[in-house]
Design brief:
- The complex is a heterodimer.
- Chain A is mostly helical.
- Chain A is built from 32 helices and 6 strands.
- Chain A has 6 domains: 38 residues, no CATH class; 108 residues, no CATH class; 118 residues, Sandwich (Immunoglobulin-like), CATH 2.60.40; 168 residues, Cytochrome c-like domain (Cytochrome Bc1 Complex, Chain D, domain 2); 78 residues, Cytochrome c-like domain (Cytochrome Bc1 Complex, Chain D, domain 2, Orthogonal Bundle); 93 residues, Orthogonal Bundle (Cytochrome Bc1 Complex, Chain D, domain 2), CATH 1.10.760.
- Chain A is 42% helix and 2% strand.
- In chain A, helix 23 crosses helix 26.
- Chain A is flat, with a radius of gyration of 34 Å.
- Helices cover 35% and strands 19% of the residues of chain B.
- In chain B, helix 1 runs antiparallel to helix 2, helix 2 runs antiparallel to helix 3 and helix 4 packs across helix 7.
- Chain B is built from 7 helices and 9 strands.
- The chains are: A mainly alpha, B alpha+beta.
């Protein structure tokens, strides 16, 4: 071999002329490398393909002109956002609306979004490597660059980097953010928002300091072993506890529980058992199902998700506790979202018996626990501390741990070198997060993170929300972000405020930015309704929207309480936009009323959604207007007709751009709708 | 070096391991730059190591074990999960379930069903054996582009003849997704005849029936300009019923366009914009 090499050397460089020729040739070849690489580069190949593609199209001339305005390597440079994107070099047709039917990449038109490419570039949303000009480098993780393209299923996460408030176009991101707070992720993991505040949990895990009043040790054991076996909708995760561990934790929790005065009430065994049908109808009339779900025979969970599922509640709670809870839930849990219905004793018996019958004998059939030993209790306390139970639940004698789990404030940008991937896993942060949520202990049996029961779509939503927590999201100048509305801590004052807390009005209604979205916003209720109607409604809520299944329950308020609330609402919840008493409640001229009727039925065709005449009209979308003249204020109706969205943002009542004259005539017509003649005759 | 080889074979992090090997090789090359033979030997060694690593990687992650069908049917039918509407790239709300039947129409257990679809569609699982009720269900995530996706479920008969079932799903892009939400909020109460417990349809109560948005036979004939006019100015704008109120002062231009993009996508039969036909190659 040595000889061969020597002879080759001789052939090439043996003679000065040959050597010169060889060196020149080598130089020429080496100098040709750069232009050749350029000529055969991938992006040129794609640009040529693009020209071929558009040549056969009807609008070829326009497309070619657009292309030749800027051929060669393209770049979007946005110094403020640190964006240098050359993606448009190959993705040539992104802005060409007429290429919508082209299915092959990289030539497809970009779908319509609220931003333009020139404003934000590409990698802000899609990740990947902007300055790269080869397919591999731009899209995949390389050694020098560990940011692969974000899979389309998580792309909404990028919106969340700047937009902190929910957007109508990003349902998955919004859902994921809700789940982070609702499934209690943020009890253990701190997530700081760029303004410094941390995301607050929206679930309300019950205090375990008095749990022995409420339930048995057997139930606690069964629940710890598998929360979803008790309630399919339970958000409590499964800690995969061994039998002895679950035994010891249940022993500790029961032994640690202290009784609360008045949170149990004796259940008298009447001679005749309460009528189950009457219990069911009281459950229905009280609209318990607006917040609580029950699994029906077909396995479907029917009802709201504000309170816990009640399918097997009779197997869980003690009847004495249940009766006291129904009488006044605030004795056991002062902060509960459950309203204080003022049920009388027969009603309490009915409901206690009705709910107590919702049992499942299978649940506790195999749970046999011997009396707890002091060692078991001590071990249980140790486990409760180790598993961080106090991160979510209040447990007397155990302090809530700080930063129990890793902080997730910048999880979306976590360097891949810091992550241990499972064999066979794609090396991408999105896959890591999704796998970790799907099966936390697959990364190590000794890990503490429990197993959550989540649907595939929920896992994707959570992953999306976590991917939004990038370095960029944290470091963007405030001027470039769209902040969320600051949370409202509105608290009504005085005796009425106490009453509203007792009735848990905010569980369903929003007032001044705080509260639930199940029922109408009451911020300006005082400008909207008439006092006698409101007081009567609080005493005995009637049906305003016949098609709704979730309606205002009857709280059995006393006259004094109803008056107190009415006074407060009428005085405090008024809009500054107009004077409530600017227009009279009655006395409109019949000509004007008749004109209003014409407008109602012909020009504006309000009967498509509303009912004024129960015999002729069938509109079931909006509230029934048969008694609107004794329910709403004239000035409210007038301003509502003129511009409903300013009075209640987001209402579906369309703005009709009504003239003053039309609005006045319609108001006159509506104010004459004082209720059916039958009811008036009764009075 | 031997240690490295073993370490590499045992490490789950194949990519980084081989990278460090390359760096090591490079450093060695620099140190004895004029020693050709050593270089050659080193190159050979690096190649050998790479080969070992590649083989290790191949043997460590064998593909899913091939499924052995224990039965075979004659027909495939859809049980549930067809004609769903979901956002691009995301898992559809309901899993797709198909059933394998034999000639008599009874369910077949243990038949192999394979799912396939256009680029970007993923199935979890992408194939499997039917259960005791003859069914196999899979979670489908549609591709990254808005539009109609035709999915195919395939099984083999006893005679090894393929039987196929085509299932349509619709993926909503950003714009159509916005339209879908607007439809849900403003339009569906009257335009969708289906009632649910949460939302009772007003369709049956209206004297002049609105067009459901899937009614392609009617809506495909209307131009975008017509649709914009009727949404903005109400039914009377096109001499139609006043029961359709105007939304031009409630919805923005972007919102109305999003609504139309959504209506066009879900239309049945599918909508083809005028002037697009020549572009189909």
């Amino acid at each position: 071999m040595k000889n061969t090499l020597a002879s080759l050397w001789q052939t090439l460089f043996g003679h000065p002329v040959r050597a010169f020729g060889t060196v020149s040739l080598l130089l020429l070849i080496s100098m040709a490398i750069a232009p050749a690489k350029n000529h055969f580069s991938e992006w040129r190949h794609y640009q040529k393909q693009y020209l071929k593609l558009i040549a056969s199209r009807g609008e070829a001339v326009t497309l070619q002109r657009h292309f030749h305005e800027h051929d060669g390597i393209q770049q979007i440079w946005l110094p403020q956002l640190a964006v240098v994107d050359r993606c448009t070099t190959c993705h040539v047709g992104l802005k060409e609306a007429s290429l919508e039917d082209v299915g092959t990449q990289p030539f497809r038109r970009h779908p319509v979004i609220p931003h333009t490419l020139d404003q934000y570039g590409c990698v802000m949303c899609h990740r990947g490597q902007g300055p790269a000009t080869t397919v591999e480098e731009a899209h995949s993780s390389t050694l020098a660059w560990e940011q692969p393209i974000l899979p389309a299923r998580y792309v909404q996460s990028s919106c969340g980097q700047c937009h902190r408030a929910p957007l109508p176009g990003t349902p998955q991101l919004n859902l994921g953010r809700n789940l982070l707070a609702r499934y209690g992720c943020v009890h253990c993991h701190t997530i700081k928002l760029p303004d410094g505040a941390a995301i607050k949990p929206t679930d309300d895990p019950p205090s375990l300091s008095h749990i022995a009043d409420k339930t048995t040790r057997e139930w606690v054991y069964a629940w710890l072993k598998d929360p979803q076996a008790y309630a399919v909708t339970a958000t409590m995760p499964n800690f995969k506890l061994s039998d002895p561990d679950a035994r010891d934790i249940s022993a500790f929790l029961i032994a640690n529980s202290a009784p609360v005065a008045g949170d149990t009430a004796p259940v008298t065994k009447d001679a005749k058992a309460p009528d189950p049908a009457a219990g069911a109808s009281l459950y229905g009339e009280s609209f318990c199902a607006s917040c609580h779900a029950v699994q029906n025979a077909a396995g479907n969970v029917v009802g709201g998700d504000v309170g816990p599922e009640l399918t097997r509640v009779g197997t869980k709670v003690k009847p004495e506790w249940l009766r006291a809870w129904l009488r006044n839930p605030r004795v056991y849990d002062p902060g509960t979202a459950m309203p204080h219905y003022r049920f009388n004793d027969p009603q309490l018996s009915l409901l206690t018996a009705f709910l107590g019958n919702k049992t499942d004998s299978d649940l506790l059939a195999n749970v046999h626990l011997d009396p707890a030993t002091p060692e078991q209790i001590a071990h249980g306390k140790l486990l409760v501390t180790e598993y961080g139970c106090a991160s979510c639940h209040q447990i007397s004698g155990i302090k809530k741990p700080d930063n129990f789990a890793p902080e997730l404030t910048r999880i979306g940008s976590k360097p891949l070198t810091q992550i241990i991937f499972l064999p066979g896993m794609t090396h991408a942060i999105s896959d890591y997060i999704a796998a970790k949520i799907r099966q936390p202990r697959s990364f190590g049996a000794a890990l503490k993170m429990p197993q959550f029961t989540l649907a595939p779509a929920q896992i994707d939503a959570l992953t999306t929300a976590l991917l939004a927590l990038t370095d960029r999201a944290n470091d963007l100048p405030m001027a470039l972000t769209v902040p969320a509305k600051p949370p409202s801590n509105y608290q009504p004052a005085g005796k009425a405020g106490q009453l509203m807390a007792d009735l848990a009005c905010f569980s369903c209604h929003t007032i001044n930015g705080r509260g639930g979205d199940m029922a109408p916003d009451l911020t300006w209720e005082g400008s909207s309704v008439q006092r006698p109607w409101l007081q009567a409604f609080l005493k005995n809520p009637g049906t305003l929207r016949p098609a709704l299944i979730r309606r205002m329950p009857k709280f059995n308020l006393s006259d004094d309480d109803a008056k107190e609330l009415t006074d407060y609402i009428m005085t405090v919840y008024q809009t500054p936009a107009f004077d409530r008493d600017a227009m009279p409640a009655s006395g409109y001229q019949s000509a004007e009323v008749e004109q209003g009727r014409q407008l109602f039925y012909s020009k504006y065709a309000c009967q498509s959604c509303h009912i004024v005449d129960t015999k002729a009209d069938k509109g079931y979308v909006g509230p029934t207007l048969t008694q609107v003249g004794s329910r709403l204020n004239a000035a409210w109706i007038y301003h509502w007709l003129k511009d409903p969205q300013t009075l209640r943002p987001g209402t579906i009542e369309p703005n009709r751009n009504m003239t003053d004259e039309d609005a006045r005539a319609l108001t006159a017509f509506l104010m004459t709708q004082k209720g059916s003649s039958k009811q008036e005759a009764k009075k | 070096m031997l240690h490295l080889i073993l370490g590499g074979a045992a490490s789950p992090n194949l990519q980084q391991e081989s990278a460090s090997l390359w760096v090591l090789g490079g450093a060695a090359l620099q140190r004895c730059g004029n020693c050709f033979f050593l270089n050659a030997a080193l190159a050979a060694e690096v190649a050998a190591v790479a080969l070992i690593l590649v083989t290790a990687a191949c043997t460590r992650n064998p593909g899913p074990p091939a499924l052995k069908p224990t039965g075979s049917g004659a027909a495939l039918v859809e049980s549930s999960g067809g004609k769903q509407i979901g956002p691009t790239g995301m898992v559809l709300a309901q899993p797709l379930a198909v059933q394998v039947n034999d000639e008599q129409g009874t369910a077949v257990t243990g038949a192999l069903v394979e799912f396939s679809g256009p680029a970007g569609v993923t199935f979890d699982p992408s194939s499997g054996l039917t259960d005791s009720s003859g069914q196999l269900s899979t979670n489908v995530a549609l591709g990254g582009m808005a539009g109609r996706y035709q999915l195919i479920a395939r099984t083999l008969t006893k005679a090894q003849k393929p039987v196929e079932l085509k299932i349509d799903e619709i993926a909503l892009g950003y714009q159509q997704q916005l339209g879908y939400q607007l439809d849900n909020k403003y339009c569906a109460r009257c335009h969708n005849p289906e009632s649910s417990a949460e939302r009772v349809s007003n369709y049956d109560n209206l004297e002049v029936k609105p067009h459901p948005f899937t009614e392609g036979d009617t809506l495909n004939k209307m131009s975008d300009a017509d649709l914009i006019a009727i949404i903005s100015h109400g039914g009377p704008a096109l001499n139609k019923s006043a029961l359709m109120p105007p939304y031009g002062y409630t919805l923005s231009k972007t919102e109305i366009e999003a609504l139309i993009a959504y209506i066009r996508l879900i239309s049945d039969p599918p909508y083809h914009a005028a002037g697009m036909v020549y572009a189909q190659k």
